Amino acid sequence: MTDAPRIVFLDRETFAPAVELTAPAAPHAWEAHQRTAPEEVAARLAGARVAITNKVPLRRAVLEGLPELKFISVAATGYDCVDIAACRELGIQVSNVRGYAKHTVPEHVFALILGLRRAIVQYRADVIAGRWEDAGQFCFHDHPIRDLAGSRIAIFGGGAIGSAVARIAEGFGMEPVFVARKREAPGAGRIPFEAALETADILSLHCPLTPATQDMIAAPEFARMGRRPLLINTARGGLVNGADAVAALEGGLIGGLGIDVLPVEPPTDDPIRAAAARPDVILTPHVGWASEEAQEEVWRQTVEAVDAFLAGAPVRLLT
Which of 28, 236, 296, 297 is an active site residue? Predict the structure, then answer.
């Protein structure tokens, strides 16, 4: 290993081209790749002391063959792309970024909610198709519109993003409630999981994907939804069973889907992607996090973590 540590960024393309990626302040040898396929990871990280990844998976089989790798800076809050247990055993420190999405994701949540509740997509399409001119009066009423004021939004996950969603909801005159974990008794300030399903007008997911939350919302949960709610997911695709979600739409159990994340990205054979043309579905390509301001903050923290590690004082450690 040379005196200047080699730093490899595996997926620069996950940031917009306009976002300036400032370099670490410490002396280093820099290498960035627009994207990295799984079979390319080992070769690209060979001899590197630091890896930067947003979504490229770093699993045990690869990590065990990288003895010089000592630090991974995850350019995201979610770190399910990294085998944390393997890193602990191998002495690889891992850091993520935190708090950067407290504006961008909640704003995207409400863009999805408003788009669905006020039929924005449908009315825009109608105007483009000439329906306004054909209406013969100043407006037309082809799609129902509902106010947000007075409705209940159930928030699954009480971190910075979920709390920001609650504050925005209060500004709209909504009733935000925080939801207990599935199969757990509610603590202070939370309502039971089942009660949220039965009483909410909107369900908004802001929890991590773990074995306990995989398919957290599936057919049994949709069957309990008493108010044909909107389901909004800007967290992780695996929280929702996609086939069951589309079936719930078709069966009238829910009023709409606002989805920014899918289990496999980009999608291959995904039922929600197949239903994206429905008027009660808004599917966006995992861009809820991606305001320019948020991307700049993600990179600032990513580089900060690298510099802190190289200075011997790592921050935001997961291992």
Answer: 236
